[in-house]
Amino acid sequence: MGVKLVVMAVVLLVCTGAIMGKRKARNSKGLLRAFVFLTALAMGIGFCLTIFPTVSYAQGDAASVSGWGYLGAALSAGLGCLGAGIAVAIVGSSALGVVGEKPEMLGSTLIFLGLAEGIAIYGLIIALLILGRM
């Protein structure tokens, strides 16, 4: 049940990124809004598929709530990667401007890019910790 949510979140994030990458970006805020909307829609559909169980006869005492752990892992990984992408976009464009004017600043800008990418790593670590507890 929870695996459906994780697989759906990953597939929809990849598909949404591929669709958004092919579009000509006229307005970056509009592109970001569309990306966030499609991702939220996908997560909502996955949430509904996880929470509302399929029809089963002779059900036990209580429904399993392990889907919440999978949902938390998917959200931490997905939102962590989304935040890292936004951070790298902002820091990367600034770093290109600085390196264009002062090439000796390349090492400093790479440090800032590494810090921005660390957000995604932290999200993945939290997702693995959540999945390890289940």
From TrEMBL:
Residue ranges constituting the V-ATPase proteolipid subunit C-like domain according to the UniProt record: 71-130
State the annotated membrane topology for this chain.
Answer: Multi-pass membrane protein
Q: What is its main location?
A: membrane
One term under GO cellular component: proton-transporting V-type ATPase, V0 domain
Tell me the compartments it is located in.
Membrane
Check the record and name the InterPro entries matching this protein: ATPase_proteolipid_c-like_dom, ATPase_proteolipid_csu, F/V-ATP_Csub_sf
TM stretches of this protein: 31-55, 67-90, 110-131
Q: Which UniProt keywords apply?
A: Ion transport, Membrane, Transmembrane, Transmembrane helix, Transport
Q: Which GO terms describe its molecular function?
A: proton-transporting ATPase activity, rotational mechanism
Stretch forming the signal peptide: none
What family does the entry list? Belongs to the V-ATPase proteolipid subunit family.
Q: What is this protein called?
A: V/A-type H+-transporting ATPase subunit K
